[in-house]
């Protein structure tokens, strides 16, 4: 079963409180999401492998550690996932970015792909799917389906806030996926909003409401 990591560093909790606040302006919301994404990138990379190289300091030669292993790929789910990309790239500037766009078919209620553009070397990369709000889990599950259909295997999920319902659905659909969240909230309301949540992440990021 995939693990759930709660990234609850005090700085993340502090910023998340202002992200939730309905009085936070679009500009501040965007900046705070960006900052939390950077802090979460620090947590999500805690286990990445290192290798030893020799480095010559001005004084002597010594061993030092550098990052080894797979390169990273960020896969934001359109559109709210875009809000976390730059913050992660601040720590991981060499990561490539793929995009997955999904809409819900009004009749079947199933997610349908409308845009998928992935790095050409996606199979060699460890992928971080970015979906700020894990509500029912439908979009994130479908995005991971998209990646697995293309034979991607090394995938993690990064969210700002998750509902218990979304975590359960993800663990049932994709038991191999580790989930990184800043907070797990109480429940989903009848409209599929996370409670207490932060409202519609896309609208708040892009000022469309
Ligand atoms: N998507 C959002 O942006 N907010 C929610 O609360 C649920 C899904």
TrEMBL record:
Q: Which CDD domains match?
A: PRTases_typeI
Q: Which pathway does it serve?
A: Pyrimidine metabolism; UMP biosynthesis via salvage pathway; UMP from uracil: step 1/1
Task: Show the catalytic activity.
Answer: UMP + diphosphate = 5-phospho-alpha-D-ribose 1-diphosphate + uracil
Q: How is the cofactor bound?
A: Binds 1 Mg(2+) ion per subunit. The magnesium is bound as Mg-PRPP.
Give one Pfam hit by family name. Answer: UPRTase
A GO molecular-function annotation: GTP binding
- Give the GO biological process terms: UMP salvage; uracil salvage
Q: Where does uracil bind?
A: 194, 199-201
Family, similarity comment: Belongs to the UPRTase family.
Instruction: Give the protein name, as stated in the record.
Output: Uracil phosphoribosyltransferase
Gene this chain is encoded by: upp
């Amino acid at each position: 079963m995939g693990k759930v990591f709660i990234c609850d560093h005090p700085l993340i909790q502090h910023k998340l409180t202002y992200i939730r606040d309905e009085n936070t302006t679009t500009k501040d919301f965007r900046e705070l999401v960006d900052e939390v994404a950077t802090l979460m990138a620090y947590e999500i990379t805690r286990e990445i492998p290192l290798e030893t190289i020799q480095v010559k300091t001005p004084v002597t030669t010594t061993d030092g550690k550098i990052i080894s292993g797979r390169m990273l790929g960020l896969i934001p789910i359109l559109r709210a996932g875009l809000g976390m990309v730059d913050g992660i790239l601040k720590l991981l500037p060499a990561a490539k970015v793929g995009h997955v766009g999904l809409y819900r078919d009004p009749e079947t209620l199933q997610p349908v792909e409308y845009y998928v553009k992935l790095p050409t070397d996606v199979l060699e990369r460890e992928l971080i799917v970015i979906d700020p709000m894990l509500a029912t889990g439908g979009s994130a599950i479908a995005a991971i389906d998209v990646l697995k259909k293309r034979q991607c295997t090394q995938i993690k999920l990064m969210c700002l806030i998750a509902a218990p319902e979304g975590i359960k659905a993800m663990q049932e659909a994709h038991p191999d996926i580790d989930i990184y969240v800043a907070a797990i909230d109480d429940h989903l309301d009848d409209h599929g909003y996370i409670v207490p949540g932060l409202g519609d992440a896309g609208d708040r990021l892009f000022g469309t409401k």
